[in-house]
């Protein structure tokens, strides 16, 4: 960019104040997005591009770790649709192609639902078998888990229905004895051995083959659905490794669940199948419609809740959710649930392990303990989010985070050692929730159902539901209290490990434990004090007044709501679990209470907190902007910054254009009329310019370093001996989004959220003053938050900065495990030393999360 004479600088002042406003170089990543139909896909509405020019391959695509241009992608899709409709009457073949295009959306969600249901069934079956493998093995059929092994046995008893000759514990196989201290120690040792083996294998597979397979995946899914591109996160390697390691992680006994990662697995399926259809493979916005439907299918198979899955996709993860995506999400969830029901992984003709039905109505007075459970859920959610984020931040900032394998082994060892003595922590978490949800009946042999009979004082169960608790119930209460403390502590340290780890089941288990304790306490209170005014109106002596399992269900919903801040979708999911409309009001009361209490300590859910921790460029539509700042206060350049890097429309040479590209690292440049005019013409992306120049050198003769580059419709007048000029009008976005310098930031933020913009130019009477990027919006929101909450951790501190996938020469950088590698800047530019408005510092931090060597 040539230096300008100060006298010819026509910069405009703000409000006539007299201050000269210098133009700043566009922040590197902030200027990556345009509005028109880039990539040679002309818009029939604007006619901005040259129709006579052949589309340039590669133009209009996106680099890794960049955000898509939603408006441009939608324009490309509309143009493709018009082209197909205009040709479908020409021949039978074109008509067939139009039908295929119309049905491709339904076909891809059908394939996604089929794959999601099949993989979920496979994961459920394998996880159950491997979880029981820690305790023993079935000699008659090695592939049977404990329950399946004893199905055909005739030697089981009511009290010990899980014991049969076909199932052998490890102590019986190794020592030849089933009872005694030696047997207990051997089973203890084998339990720890298998837990550590599964955990070690899971973390090694993740680290070596697919670093993206770790964690829940929902924060990244939300970021991807908002338009961010993370190559390989939804690839086939990630799908395969996540499916395998999810089974291993669940079987290891860690305090995690498989429900959250199942959403990631389903989205991987949707992404892979979308590449079979050009309609979705060549359009990033359309692909995200498939991913929204896939996330609904993931929740559908995770909880057996198809409708809840659709609402989860709408409420929690999707950024753009048109009506047709709602229908296709519903269909994908239906197909996935049908496939899972056909597989019947639990052998109970249900979609989930802990399906229960209650037959006792709830009473108005019970809303008080239900609301108290909601308060507990909100407090637990706020505490967990702060504690887990603090631990994850410490992991990132200390040497401990450099040894993920050691961390997983350490957490797995502590979990196994502490969990084995307590039967409620030893068993699978899903089985624990099932036991806590289940109401006591004549066929239940659980310790929670060992009530005393009023006839003989024994522990035999009677049909009288209103009964005093026996020693077994009191022992179970103490064990549940210890299990509650254990689950709370271990879940904080487990979520965020480098293995697939979901949060739904651990949170529900914590709430179910607390709810069951409260339910039993209420039951005994009603029994011993049935003459109190609280009970005597609706609880008669001998009547079935209190259902402890219902309290466990309400507590589970409250704790999960406190952690995720889900409301409508959570109530529907739990309702589909229980199969009863009668308990909608208690669930709604508890979930809303937990959300209100949790929001009092911070409005972020756990997924938004992890998005913020990782520094993903995500604008949450749930947040409200209530400040009165203007666009001129947020835009770059600032008064002390260098001028903006701009291109003129017809007086640059190829050599000068390449010099601008090589000497800067910005992803786009405003195009102006001339140095004197400064009037905005359009916006050109760095990637598109580089690709266009390379393409012209290969296919056009006479393109030299001193060839004139022009972005206008017609070539400028040149001397006769001049080399052939290079026309780049086809890559120019002539309608970039612009706002005036007096536009309120409230409107600017809404524009960015609702249109999915990445950058917006700020003008005054048609002259470019500066630029506002999505990153500038996030920084501005963070500055305002710091003013309101001085103790809150800054987004600048822990944000993740990603390298561009192409170097200054336009060639892709080398990749290791789907990660581009780039050296840290050493010359000062990596820290904004040249005044690039802060976007330059995107280069300086290596991506430890993604690099397999630094996972």
TrEMBL record:
<keyword id="KW-0813">Transport</keyword>
<feature type="domain" description="CBS">
    <location>
        <begin position="635"/>
        <end position="701"/>
    </location>
</feature>
<dbReference type="InterPro" id="IPR000644">
    <property type="entry name" value="CBS_dom"/>
</dbReference>
<feature type="region of interest" description="Disordered">
    <location>
        <begin position="822"/>
        <end position="855"/>
    </location>
</feature>
<dbReference type="GO" id="GO:0005524">
    <property type="term" value="F:ATP binding"/>
</dbReference>
<dbReference type="GO" id="GO:0005247">
    <property type="term" value="F:voltage-gated chloride channel activity"/>
</dbReference>
<keyword id="KW-0458">Lysosome</keyword>
<dbReference type="InterPro" id="IPR046342">
    <property type="entry name" value="CBS_dom_sf"/>
</dbReference>
<keyword id="KW-0067">ATP-binding</keyword>
<dbReference type="GO" id="GO:0005765">
    <property type="term" value="C:lysosomal membrane"/>
</dbReference>
<comment type="function">
    <text>Strongly outwardly rectifying, electrogenic H(+)/Cl(-)exchanger which mediates the exchange of chloride ions against protons. The CLC channel family contains both chloride channels and proton-coupled anion transporters that exchange chloride or another anion for protons. The presence of conserved gating glutamate residues is typical for family members that function as antiporters.</text>
</comment>
<keyword id="KW-0472">Membrane</keyword>
<keyword id="KW-1133">Transmembrane helix</keyword>
<dbReference type="GO" id="GO:0031901">
    <property type="term" value="C:early endosome membrane"/>
</dbReference>
<feature type="transmembrane region" description="Helical">
    <location>
        <begin position="103"/>
        <end position="123"/>
    </location>
</feature>
<protein>
    <recommendedName>
        <fullName>Chloride channel protein</fullName>
    </recommendedName>
</protein>
<dbReference type="GO" id="GO:0062158">
    <property type="term" value="F:chloride:proton antiporter activity"/>
</dbReference>
<feature type="transmembrane region" description="Helical">
    <location>
        <begin position="405"/>
        <end position="424"/>
    </location>
</feature>
<keyword id="KW-1003">Cell membrane</keyword>
<feature type="compositionally biased region" description="Acidic residues">
    <location>
        <begin position="837"/>
        <end position="848"/>
    </location>
</feature>
<feature type="transmembrane region" description="Helical">
    <location>
        <begin position="550"/>
        <end position="575"/>
    </location>
</feature>
<feature type="transmembrane region" description="Helical">
    <location>
        <begin position="476"/>
        <end position="497"/>
    </location>
</feature>
<keyword id="KW-0967">Endosome</keyword>
<feature type="transmembrane region" description="Helical">
    <location>
        <begin position="509"/>
        <end position="530"/>
    </location>
</feature>
<feature type="domain" description="CBS">
    <location>
        <begin position="732"/>
        <end position="789"/>
    </location>
</feature>
<keyword id="KW-0325">Glycoprotein</keyword>
<keyword id="KW-0812">Transmembrane</keyword>
<dbReference type="Pfam" id="PF00571">
    <property type="entry name" value="CBS"/>
</dbReference>
<feature type="transmembrane region" description="Helical">
    <location>
        <begin position="191"/>
        <end position="213"/>
    </location>
</feature>
<keyword id="KW-0129">CBS domain</keyword>
<dbReference type="GO" id="GO:0008021">
    <property type="term" value="C:synaptic vesicle"/>
</dbReference>
<keyword id="KW-0406">Ion transport</keyword>
<dbReference type="InterPro" id="IPR001807">
    <property type="entry name" value="ClC"/>
</dbReference>
<keyword id="KW-0547">Nucleotide-binding</keyword>
<feature type="transmembrane region" description="Helical">
    <location>
        <begin position="290"/>
        <end position="314"/>
    </location>
</feature>
<feature type="transmembrane region" description="Helical">
    <location>
        <begin position="363"/>
        <end position="385"/>
    </location>
</feature>
<dbReference type="InterPro" id="IPR002245">
    <property type="entry name" value="ClC3"/>
</dbReference>
<comment type="similarity">
    <text>Belongs to the chloride channel (TC 2.A.49) family. ClC-3/CLCN3 subfamily.</text>
</comment>
<dbReference type="GO" id="GO:0031902">
    <property type="term" value="C:late endosome membrane"/>
</dbReference>
<feature type="transmembrane region" description="Helical">
    <location>
        <begin position="261"/>
        <end position="278"/>
    </location>
</feature>
<keyword id="KW-0677">Repeat</keyword>
<dbReference type="GO" id="GO:0005794">
    <property type="term" value="C:Golgi apparatus"/>
</dbReference>
């Amino acid at each position: 960019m040539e230096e300008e004479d100060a006298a010819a600088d026509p910069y405009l002042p703000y409000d006539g104040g007299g201050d000269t406003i210098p133009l700043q170089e566009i922040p590197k990543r902030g200027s990556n997005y345009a509005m028109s139909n880039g990539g040679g896909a002309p818009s029939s509405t604007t006619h901005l591009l040259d129709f006579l020019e052949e589309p340039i391959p590669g133009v209009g695509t996106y680099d890794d770790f960049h955000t898509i241009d939603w408006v441009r992608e939608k324009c490309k899709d509309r143009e493709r649709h018009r082209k197909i409709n205009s040709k479908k009457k020409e021949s039978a073949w074109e008509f067939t192609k139009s039908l295929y295009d119309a049905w491709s959306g339904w076909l891809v969600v059908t394939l996604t639902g089929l794959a999601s249901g099949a993989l979920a069934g496979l994961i459920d079956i394998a996880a159950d078998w491997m979880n029981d493998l820690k305790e023993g093995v079935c000699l008659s059929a090695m592939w049977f888990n404990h329950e399946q092994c004893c199905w055909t046995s005739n030697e089981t008893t009511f009290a010990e229905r899980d014991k049969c000759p076909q199932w052998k514990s490890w102590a019986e196989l190794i020592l030849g004895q089933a009872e005694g201290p030696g047997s207990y120690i051997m089973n203890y040792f084998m339990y720890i051995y298998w837990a550590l083996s599964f955990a070690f294998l899971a973390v090694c597979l993740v680290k070596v083959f697919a670093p993206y397979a770790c964690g829940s995946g929902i924060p990244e899914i939300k970021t991807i659905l908002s338009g961010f591109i993370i190559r390989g996160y939804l690839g086939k390697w990630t799908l395969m490794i996540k499916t395998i390691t999810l089974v291993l992680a669940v079987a290891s006994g860690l305090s995690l669940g498989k429900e959250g990662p199942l959403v990631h697995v389903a989205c991987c399926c949707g992404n892979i199948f979308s590449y079979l259809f050009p309609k979705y493979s060549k359009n990033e916005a359309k692909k995200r419609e498939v991913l929204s439907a896939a996330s609904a299918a993931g929740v559908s198979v995770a909880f057996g809740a198809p409708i809840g899955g659709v609402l989860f996709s709408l409420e929690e993860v999707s950024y753009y959710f048109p009506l047709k995506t709602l229908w296709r999400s519903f269909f994908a969830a239906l197909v996935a649930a049908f496939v899972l029901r056909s597989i019947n992984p639990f052998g109970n003709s249900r979609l989930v392990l802990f399906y229960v039905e209650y037959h006792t109505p709830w009473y108005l007075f019970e809303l008080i303990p239900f609301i108290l459970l909601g308060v507990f859920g909100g407090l637990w959610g706020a505490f967990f989010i702060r504690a887990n984020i603090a631990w994850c931040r410490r992991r990132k900032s200390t040497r401990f985070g450099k040894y993920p394998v050691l961390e997983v082994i350490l957490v797995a060892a502590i979990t196994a050692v502490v969990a084995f003595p307590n039967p409620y922590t030893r068993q699978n978490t899903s089985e624990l929730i099932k036991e806590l949800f289940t109401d006591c009946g004549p066929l239940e042999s659980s310790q929670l159902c060992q009530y005393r009979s009023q006839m003989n004082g024994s522990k035999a169960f009677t049909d009288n539901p209103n009964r005093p608790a026996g020693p077994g119930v009191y022992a179970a209460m103490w064990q549940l209290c210890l299990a509650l403390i254990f689950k709370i502590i271990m879940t904080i340290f487990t979520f965020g490990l480098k293995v697939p780890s979901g949060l739904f089941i651990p949170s529900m288990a914590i709430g179910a434990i607390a709810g069951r304790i409260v339910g039993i306490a209420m039951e005994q209170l009603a029994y011993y004090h049935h003459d109190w005014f609280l009970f005597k109106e609706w609880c008669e002596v001998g009547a079935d007044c209190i259902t402890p399992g219902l309290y466990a269900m309400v507590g589970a919903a409250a704790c999960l709501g406190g952690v995720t801040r889900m409301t409508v979708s959570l109530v529907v999911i739990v309702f589909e679990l229980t199969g009863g409309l009668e308990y909608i009001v208690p669930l709604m009361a508890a979930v809303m209470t937990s959300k209100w209490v949790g929001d009092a300590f911070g409005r972020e859910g756990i997924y938004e907190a992890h998005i913020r921790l990782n520094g993903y460029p995500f604008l949450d539509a749930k947040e409200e902007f209530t400040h009165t700042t203007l666009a001129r206060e947020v835009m770059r350049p600032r008064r002390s910054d260098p001028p903006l890097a701009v291109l003129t429309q017809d007086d640059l040479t190829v050599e000068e254009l390449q010099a601008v590209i090589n000497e800067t690292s910005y992803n786009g440049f405003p195009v102006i009329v001339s140095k004197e005019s400064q009037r905005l013409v359009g916006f050109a992306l760095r990637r598109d310019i580089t690709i266009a120049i390379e393409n012209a050198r290969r296919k056009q003769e006479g393109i030299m370093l001193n060839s004139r580059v022009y972005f206008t419709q017609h070539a400028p007048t040149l001397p006769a001996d001049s080399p052939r000029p290079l026309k780049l009008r086809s890559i120019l976005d002539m309608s970039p989004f612009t706002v005036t310098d007096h536009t309120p930031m409230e409107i600017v933020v809404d524009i960015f959220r609702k249109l999915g913009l990445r950058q917006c130019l700020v003008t005054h009477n048609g002259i470019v003053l500066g630029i506002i990027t999505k990153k500038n919006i996030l920084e501005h929101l963070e500055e305002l938050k710091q003013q309101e909450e001085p103790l809150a951790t800054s987004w600048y501190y822990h944000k993740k900065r990603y390298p561009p996938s192409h170097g200054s020469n336009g060639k892709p950088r080398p990749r290791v495990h789907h990660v581009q590698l780039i050296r840290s800047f050493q010359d000062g530019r990596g820290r904004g030393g040249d005044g690039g408005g802060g976007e330059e510092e995107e280069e300086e931090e290596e991506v430890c999360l993604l690099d397999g060597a630094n996972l």
